[in-house]
Amino acid sequence: MNEEFLNRLRAAVGAANVLTDGDLSAWEQDWRKRTRGKALAVVRPGSTEEVAAVVRACAESGTPLVPQGGNTGLVVGGVPDESGREIVLSLTRLNKVRGIDPANLTMTVDAGCVLQNLQQAAEQAGLLFPLSLAAEGSCTIGGNLATNAGGTQVLRYGNTRELCLGLEVVTAQGEVWSGLSGLRKDNTGYDLRDLFIGSEGTLGVITGATMKLYPLPAATLTAWAAVPSLEAAVKLLGLAQKHLGAGLTGFEVMGQFALALVDKHYPQLRVPLFREFPYCVLLENSDTESEEHARGAFERLLETALEDGCVADAVVAENIAQAHGLWHIRESIPLAQAEEGLNIKHDISLPVSRIPTYCAETDALLQKEIPGVRLVNFGHLGDGNLHYNVQAPEGGDMKAFLREHEERVNTLVYDQVKRFDGSISAEHGIGGLKVGKLPEYKSKVAIGMMQALKKALDPKDILNPGRVVPR
Amino acid sequence: MNEEFLNRLRAAVGAANVLTDGDLSAWEQDWRKRTRGKALAVVRPGSTEEVAAVVRACAESGTPLVPQGGNTGLVVGGVPDESGREIVLSLTRLNKVRGIDPANLTMTVDAGCVLQNLQQAAEQAGLLFPLSLAAEGSCTIGGNLATNAGGTQVLRYGNTRELCLGLEVVTAQGEVWSGLSGLRKDNTGYDLRDLFIGSEGTLGVITGATMKLYPLPAATLTAWAAVPSLEAAVKLLGLAQKHLGAGLTGFEVMGQFALALVDKHYPQLRVPLFREFPYCVLLENSDTESEEHARGAFERLLETALEDGCVADAVVAENIAQAHGLWHIRESIPLAQAEEGLNIKHDISLPVSRIPTYCAETDALLQKEIPGVRLVNFGHLGDGNLHYNVQAPEGGDMKAFLREHEERVNTLVYDQVKRFDGSISAEHGIGGLKVGKLPEYKSKVAIGMMQALKKALDPKDILNPGRVVPR
Questions:
Q1: Which residues are in the FAD-binding PCMH-type domain (chains A, B) (predicted)?
Q2: A245 with B429: Cβ contact below 8 A
Q3: Domain that residue A140 falls in
């Protein structure tokens, strides 16, 4: 039976693109090495039609499939389970830029294109594709769309969802929906595009997309501000939005302990202004006019903020190297915390206005629960998104800490998120990792609708089964 | 049976809010007076719970219902049919602003709030709610959401969809989904919000929403430019996007005949620069800094465009009165064409880059089909959205023109839209008016998915049945 099915796959995509032997860990293991599954096969179609043929073979034989892009997901949503029954449908051979339309400010691409390649393709056309995140060198746009990835420029340009105008999708029946619209307005029925975006491969397989492009800014400046409190950081955000408008393309907050870890493990990065202040903020200003204009706007903003007291001290990068240096500090926080040892990671979002109280209360509850616990708190404050990570007390046994506390810490953090009307997954998704948590933190009505939609579009439950939608 | 059902409604919302007698034309007739239906009753609940009770009564008795806001829709999607079986569920008593959160830049409101009241509530809080369209004095935000309304600032702020962060919805089963998130990032499952937005009341009844707000700009300037061709207008758009970035909040194109009609019927409006040029463009620049800065940016843009040849002549409004005057000309086009007589209206969108060729080809095809036909072509060029309206030849019998040509003209215009990868409904929706056209202009796969989704969420087909989704 399996052999007959595999032969059908081989006929569809070529025998060389149906992998069943050898080391398949690149496809079977998730990026954070939380899980190692076992695939019936790794199938690598080379065209949309081949994807459709594979899905039809799966539909007819009832074989479950897991769509996979760059396999950089953080919630175990793109690797097979341990049953050996699931195939991995790898999209990475679909890697062409189909076309760029500068007058329409759009780019139509295959799902398997690596994000960084798309940034470069846009730049070569004199335009900006603003999606940017840590995994950009290996993640694919199909994966970005399937998980509605966020990143560092959401404040200005939105999540991946907001950057997408149209999709090409292979349905659970193996039909092709050609929805590659380059339209900014289209009210001819239900919003199928946004239903597939963020569904993590459980409703259809994204094979292509039309994405928005933007003019390249004339200048981009970066500033670093020390703030006396999270309340002050929120106030600074409001001032920056007022002064810079859409020029504000980045607003990252970093707690003192997060920066202390960078300072400890990467002293050569020379973290500025963090010793005396509980939080620092990294601001980015993208200007359509000139560097001079950007600098003037930044200076007026920071003067106002200093007078107002919501900024204690600040520096503006003098040149691109300094700007990269400041961003590099921000981006080194995850690595520095890994150097420090295991920790309990969260990717939460909250209404921006409620973040200061959330953190004050939750910090205190965690200290009470685990005296000496250390918080690596940082994230995209402009989007209300915090990576609120919990590190063991200094010198403690980290493995024991995780074993003893992970479940309780998650419950405490997520219960607080619920109290403050937040989300337990801001930008990473649900996958297999958090699907068990969903019934506690999402309404029964919402989950009921999700189940109904899943059943409507994938009645045989062959697309990434068990992920995202609680059973 | 009917009486028993009506008594249940009276018990749910109060007898005074179940209208069955007298003149119900305000609810039964659509705004453009294309259709006059007959309602079993007009039901006016005063709270979300009352909406849920009404929907439960409908679900249990199998009574179809038509949700209705300000009844300003243009595609016969919010009025009952002639059967006398459908109730109108009017949301206008749900008209409270539930709260404004300035630090989070959000506003949570009842679905029945009139759009203009929300603009004013935001402004009183020192903030901007940027949704703006002709019917804003009477349309409701629930209707805007149900139809994903567009308007004049989509270029910068997006359609209603892009302005919404969360919804409260009564499902077809009469349950309440409380999805009033003030979150800019939330990846905890399927995007239910965007599925309801634009579904025109066929999947659920929107009762509340959390909408995005923005800082008020420091200055808003308006310019009027005559352009030698549509190609030049597209080029000017690209230059304006490059120079002004997100400052570009309006880019409206108006054909010479459209402006000639305004000049003919409202000579006091003094339309500038239209006699020698085939198209004029209205540009709006919203600046976070100052009027002086806005004026400088506009002047640099227009100088570049004049040198480049894509602008032939231009004026910048000197003050707010002049700016309003220019906008008033643009907004008077629909009235001027009504003064001129009946015409065949279209609300199409295309990739911006393809608009010049689309218009050249389609203009010629129409002239060939109906010699002397006149085109009232205007719209939101920045969004690729044209109101490409077809007026009878001068002096002809207009009723006869419509009778003889409407169907053929629609087919010609829409077939061309299909050839150019456009949409037959950019911002007005499908409703009952265009649902019959959908199978010709939307893919079978897409319609199949729409039908499956409708069946999944509204299995008894009680919510606005027959609208949007072809049967």
A1: 35-216
A2: no
A3: 97-215
